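Summary for the steering committee. One of the milestones for this cycle was to obtain a three-dimensional model of the protein with pyridoxal-5'-phosphate bound, which we needed before selecting residues for the alanine scan. The sequence and ligand used are listed below.
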Amino acid sequence: MVNLKAQYNRLKPEIDAAIQNVCQEGAFIKGRQVAQFETNLAEKIGVKHVIGVANGTDALQIALMALDLESGDEVIIPAFAYAALPEAVLLLGLKPIFVDVNENDFLINISDLENKITNRTRVIAPVHLFGLTAEMDALVDIAQKHSLYILEDAAQSMGSTYFSERIFGSSGTLGDIGTTSFFPSKNLGCYGDGGAIFTNSDTLAAKVRMLANHGQTQKYYHEVIGLNSRLDTIQAAILNIKIRELDEYISRRVQIAAWYNEGLGNVKSIIIPQVKFKTRTHAFHQYTIIVEDGTRDQLKEFLTENGVPTMIYYPLPLHKQKAYATKDVLYVSEQLCHRVLSLPICPELTSEQQLYIINKIQSFYKS
Ligand SMILES: *Cc1c(COP(=O)(O)O)cnc(C)c1O
């Protein structure tokens, strides 16, 4: 799905030198490159604090811990998303409340969300799935009305923006606290695990730093129960190089998405994603189509046979997972799991490869 080797080969001299620097300096933990990257990223996305952590799942857990919630407090999350969020919620003794998503953009559904608010609700946690930011104006209105925190999972939306009259900025910096992941295949990926937390609040930033560092501000004096979660120096050094390429990667992704839409727009059995929006830019972490019910698995198999890798994000909604099953009926999320298919969209995909993929999909639905 992603051609990480080609990307590395393009940046090889710089990346190799950066890794060697870290090794020669010997500051493998909390080396200067980590603070440098935190500053670079904070400037890039326009947020006061960026705190590097070990991965995107830790980022979610630490962000939730920083909000000082009580056992049984409810965190609202979309049911059509990745498992990291319900995991973090449940490990902390909080209660995930699953909400359906919109069929047209895969994002948290505002009216279902409003129906699920109770007097135990404390946090709304939108997942900006596939690279598109959820409807922040509506979310901020609801959060203000009910005094709730907004925790944004921006693991897939790095490099996308939201710009209404009232709320504008980079995805992940629009609520109280946001998180991302630098997993290799993400929009801004490192060469191992990595993640970060964003906030404009000095208080939350200080708490996050303390929590990620064993709950201590002074060495060997532990104020709260924390954990050990650090962004590696080597990963930070790599990210300092790759961050310069981020805008280019994103515009390639958007271009590829637009070309897919041109090529597939006339296929009746496929619903293509929207590319242009009034108040948002899409980062196209994934290009995901919705296909006619009952044809998805055959299409996937056909593409595999023809050498085209595709993925199903996601085959089962969160409220149906054995580990966190509820009795909820969330119709759109359940239907989408049978019908979605994500096509290759890495920045290195060539136009010839893309044309081949489009032709194969066209021929599948013609026969
Ligand atoms: C990748 C991802 C995560 C977790 O990131 P890791 O770095 O793999 O822990 C969390 N949420 C979403 C939506 C993701 O796509």
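Key point for the committee: The chain has two domains: 4-99+107-244, 247-366.
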